[in-house]
Amino acid sequence: MTHPVLPTAPLGTDGPLVGVQGLGCMGMSEFYGPTDSGEALATLDAALEAGVTLFDTADMYGSGRNEEFIGPFVRANRDRVVIATKFAIERDENDPTKRAVRNDPAYIRTAVEGSLRRLGVDVIDLYYMHRRNPEVPLAESVGAMADLVRAGKVRQLGLSEVTGAELREAHAVHPIAAVQSEWSVFARDVERSAVPTAAELGVAFVPYSPLGRGFLTGAFQDAGTLAADDFRRTHPRYTGENAAANGELLAPLREIAAAHDATLAQVALAWVQQRAQVHKLTVVPIPGTRKRSRLAENTGAVALRLSAEELALLEPLAGRVAGDRYADMSNTSVGRE
Length: 337
Ligand SMILES: NC(=O)c1ccc[n+]([C@@H]2O[C@H](COP(=O)([O-])OP(=O)(O)OC[C@H]3O[C@@H](n4cnc5c(N)ncnc54)[C@H](OP(=O)(O)O)[C@@H]3O)[C@@H](O)[C@H]2O)c1
Fold this sequence. Notes:
Blueprint: E1 8-10, E2 17-19, E3 23-24, H1 37-50, E4 54-56, H2 65-76, E5 82-87, E6 89-92, E7 95-101, H3 105-119, E8 124-129, H4 138-150, E9 154-160, H5 164-173, E10 178-182, H6 194-201, E11 204-208, H7 240-248, H8 251-260, H9 264-279, H10 292-299, H11 308-314, H12 317-320
Parallel strand pairs: 3-4, 4-5, 5-8, 8-9, 9-10, 10-11
Antiparallel strand pairs: 1-2, 6-7
Helix pairs in contact: 1-10, 3-4, 4-5, 5-6, 8-9
């Protein structure tokens, strides 16, 4: 199933129009095993060709290397690319597993300069707070982000892994264009508060890991078999007994995919788009891939329409998934709900 050029959707009430599917670039530099750089760069070009315009990175992906990697592509296509990056997760150069969550204004002012430099651009189209540190008043952090808009360094603001209440509070300080949080047929906690609040406020939703980090596609069955440094080994739901049980839950996706001559990835992506319609909000999922063939497959999902019966088959899955989204949920919106 393929689609010539993606339709577009607005990113928040004042934001730009973007292709209804974006591209997650994280795996190009870290987390999901070795990357073929040439193929990854070709995938960026192919995405733009297919109508993907929202490209997603963060300063912490590869400790800055991901922003540097996609920078030349962003600059070469500056008028067409909507570049989104993020701050807040401070890493320790000596220990890649160590993280601190920084939301203080001084940190934000320094972080943005680093992202602008590594991307090699004058302005970031969408700047997200990657994680929330509840010890810093949200109004202070969003106030500092709003200063960046006024200074012309950032065009739109976004938040990642926030609760509905946090989104509402932030939006009162400065309009928020997009919330980026995990949302897939296996991960639906956002539907409790962040999604309804975003719908009410006219904020776009950018579902990350819409393919369950690849698990929903059947590409791997147990993350324990992946490379020693593959980040998915740390996710409780993708290893051992949990992964085996969760693999069984893919049966309805397989059935639906077969009926449409589609793939599991396409069913998972079509589900997100159609679920957003139920909540009456704009979504721009950002499946991550480093391969042109998968990019074509994923963008092809916009042509797939699931029936009410098929959606009903998928409805109970998230409630049956064994294991949390992260080993430590305290930094996610769920941890603060
Ligand atoms: N805000 C946050 O906290 C946060 C957290 C995680 C991710 N993100 C963002 O969201 C983006 C997407 O999330 P994600 O990369 O974690 O997960 P994802 O999009 O659910 O899945 C990505 C994985 O699936 C594989 N894949 C992609 N398309 C496929 C297909 N059609 N068939 C089989 N396998 C396929 C990819 O491998 P290949 O690359 O080898 O194709 C990769 O291993 C990231 O790139 C990042 O920009 C944000």
